[in-house]
Amino acid sequence: MVLHFNLKGMFLLCLGLICWQLLLPYPLFGAALGTAVFGIYQRRNFTAADGIFAAAFLMNVWYISASRGNVRQYDYYNFVMQADYFLQNGFFLAAPERYLQTVYFQPPLWGGIAAAVTKFGMLCGAAQEESFDCVRYLNLFFVSGTGIILWRLMETFGFKRGVCLGLFALFCFFPAHAILANLVNNDAAVYFLMTAMMFVGYQWYLAGGWKDALILAGLLLAAGMIKFSGLMIVPALGVFGLCRLVQTKSKFSSRLWGQISVIGLGAVLGFGWGWFLLYYDLPLVPPLQDAGFQAMSGYPLNERLFSLQSAFIPYVDVRAGILEPNVFLALVKTALFGEWGWQGLFWAYVLYGSGIVLSVLLVMTFFSLWRYKIGYDYAFNMFAVVCVFSVLAAWVNFWLDYPYFCSTEFRYAAILLPVSLLWFGNYLTQKSLPKAVNYVLAGGSALFIFAKFMLYLHTI
Question: Taking the complete model, does pTM exceed 0.70, yes or no?
């Protein structure tokens, strides 16, 4: 079973969609549909995995093309100002004090990329605002590319065919991915880079090649210079280096230590903007601001951990003052709906209930990491454990230090989705479950996907 879509092809397709939106007055969804149909025709050996991926991609394009402008965006105007800064200063970091005030201490790489896309659109004759909205198609690539990488990982681990298809469908149609694909901020890029680091890091662990080490170093550099949270995965990547060091016969191998040094250098340089801020005694994230509509400081810690007062309300809507105090329920709700309300309340309840069940299954099967090895040995199991605790620790520290609702959102811990689906898939592959249970899981996944489609159909 093969997935024919690849990162290079998806990147070119998304660039083509940018050009289509800028240059032609026809519906963008029609262009994507035509491209997909042509691709299917060209591939006589089109597989079920290709069908799942293409359908999810088209659904995301449908949502994006119907949600132009400042619709369901995080930090929209902050990133408008960041891109505008680069446009006004010829892509140089002139007037650094003004830059810091503009971007709230964000690393500069994503602002420069967004500005380049905006400048291209303006050269094509589009207005600056319309050109800036095209940044979303880069995030469409990042979300789609993350799915491709997950498929490669499942192939590497040798999951059963049915398990691969089921988890791949669940991942590709996961509601947060359409939200991430429609954003102009840096969340989708960091999500893609962290997933890529997980894949390349494991390939480096298996083969120990210089190419993988250099790619991994480059990914660390890019992730850190886009958003500091991209480096949350560094402790987990360290597991691969430690396992290789333990297993090698020559503990002082210049090849091994050279590769570890290159990877480490990538992480150090990736935090380069952080070193700059620390040198000038500036915060890595913005100081507490007046965000009263998102303030959670009035809720005591026990309520933020155990409150169930909003447990049966699927949406949060921070602009309407509807907040979820329980941080774990907030994580689930923002994974499914973001921080906004949607039309189609019945399907929202179906999606919410399914999401709760999925969350419980992922937490329960986390403990299978001690029993069933993933792949060649237990190195990836240890990677997953360290990844979970390091990401959750950073997430907890963030919402404790910055008591806003936005601090608890799924986007800050999104990497846990592909990691948890991998250990879930490994459990389903190695554990012989009754056929009835497999049918229930397949039916539940189908209901989850259908509920998302119906919710979008009501809203768009």
Answer: yes
Cα distances from 352 to residues 111, 134, 175, 176, 447, in angstroms, run 34, 31, 11, 13, 11
* Rounded Cα–Cα distance for residues 388 and 384 (Å): 6
Asked whether the beta carbons of 65 and 27 are under 8 A apart, the reply is yes
Residue 78 CB: number of other CB atoms within 10 A?
Answer: 16
In which band, very low, low, confident or very high, does the pLDDT at 247 lie, cut at 50, 70 and 90? Answer: confident
- CB within 8 A of 249, min separation 6: which ones? none
**C-alpha–C-alpha distance, residues 406 and 78, integer Å:** 15
Q: What is the pLDDT of residues 76-115, one digit of tens each?
A: 988 998 899 889 888 877 766 667 766 677 899 999 999 9
* 448: its two tokens: 């989850």
CB 39 within 8 A of CB 3: no
pLDDT of residue 328: 97
- Report the amino acid identity of residue 17: L
Dist CA 197 CA 212 (whole Å): 10
* Two structure tokens written together for 429: 């592959």
Q: Is 370 helix (H, G, I), strand (E, B) or coil?
A: helix
CB 202 within 8 A of CB 422: no
If DSSP codes are grouped into helix, strand and coil, which group holds residue 189? Answer: helix
Task: Say how far apart CA 89 and CA 443 lie, in whole Å.
Answer: 54
